[in-house]
Amino acid sequence: MSSIPPMGQGLWRVARNQQLQQDYGDQWDAGADGDPQDLGMEMGPAPGHAPPSPLAWASRRHPQHCQGADIYQLLRARRGKEQPGFIDLEMLPPELSITILSYLNATDLCLASCVWQDLGHDEYLWQGLCKSTWGHCSIYNRRLPSGFSYRRLYMQLDEGSLTFNANHQEGISYFMSRGILVDHPKELAKFIFCTRTLNWKMLRVYLDERRDVLDELVTLHNFSNQFLPNALRDFFRHIHAPEERGEYLETLITKFSHRFCACNPALVREVGLSPDAVYVLCYSLILLSIDLTSPHVKNKMSKREFIRNTRRAAQNISEDFVGHLYDNIYLIGHVAA
Q: Is 92 exposed, middle or buried (0-12, 13-18, 19+ CB in 10 A)?
């Protein structure tokens, strides 16, 4: 959006809300001396009840704050002085100012701290940024020392992520040296599962080296009541599939097959699935995804061909179930995209 100021969409919302409230103030000024119903905002009184007085109506529309300036009066005074620009957040109640700034990302919040230093350095805001970007860290579960700063922690997490994306071993060592992570497979798996800032290529190399972390990462997935292609997409969204078929891809599909059956015992009984059958179906889905989505394949596989080829390898799977697998890939797309 070219009309949004460079300091971010969050601060743009402040200006937009201010304009809306000033327009609302114009309507209030026009109808303050008359019937409140002239403003077009008053609902009729309930049967058997007298209509509220203008004073009661105004107090309900513009409640007074126990602390800080009254927002409505503040905007009216500001409009009367014809002051341009953004409203001073320090003149608003603290909880409202914090809510406004919570829409900003780290870059915009740093810019906002140049204007509102105390608000921009608020620990609540930086804690929210840390946990929304890196959902799990070992340090979150420890008693934090006095003087701990989530703003400094955010900078360390950001630097550690950049280091990981350049060299996965140095990145993990950085997190451990700062006490952010502990060297335990489950903790490392939770960190990876809840983080979206790590480069998937480096992550793939790291998981290929740390199979114990990979095992824990697989167990964090819950595939209960998920259709097989959708579950496979969810799996590859966290653990990216390699570009070529090899030992690592076979390992991933094997682990996925066992986890999928463990999460769906009823489906295993009703459809006759087993880890080996799911393993075969996964490869069939990957090959079908390539066939249907690749521009280099001119003669696309038909539904009848897919059913025939798949049931040759998994004879105990019903034709209807395999047909639904084809429909899912045809309508939704690649399972490992």
A: buried
What does the alpha-carbon distance between residue 317 and residue 303 come to, in Å, rounded to a whole number? Answer: 15
Listed in sequence order, the DSSP H helices in the chain are 9-31, 54-61, 71-81, 94-101, 106-113, 117-120, 123-133, 150-166, 168-177, 185-193, 200-209, 211-219, 228-238, 247-263, 265-271, 275-293, 303-313, 319-332
Mind giving me the DSSP string for 224-261? TT--HHHHHHHHHHHSPPPSS-SHHHHHHHHHHHHHHH
User: DSSP letters along 161-202, please?
Assistant: HHHHHH-HHHHHHHHHHTTSS-S-HHHHHHHHHTB--S-HHH
Global pTM value: 0.70
User: Region 250-270: what's the mean pLDDT?
Assistant: 93
CA 181, 187, 188, 191 torsion-angle sign: negative
Predicted confidence (pLDDT) per residue in 184-238, tens digit: 999 999 999 999 899 999 999 999 999 999 999 999 999 999 999 999 999 999 8
| Nearest one of 273, 274, 302 to 288, comparing CA atoms | 302
Distances (CA, A) of 191 to 67, 75, 178: 40, 45, 15
For the ranges 3-12, 82-91, 232-241, the lowest mean pLDDT is seen at: 3-12
Measure the N-to-C terminal CA separation of the chain; round to a whole number of Å.
29
Q: What percent of the chain has pLDDT over 90?
A: 53
Closest residue by Cα to residue 172 from 117, 309, 214, 184: 184
- The 10s digit of each residue's pLDDT in 118-143 is 888 899 999 999 999 999 999 999 99
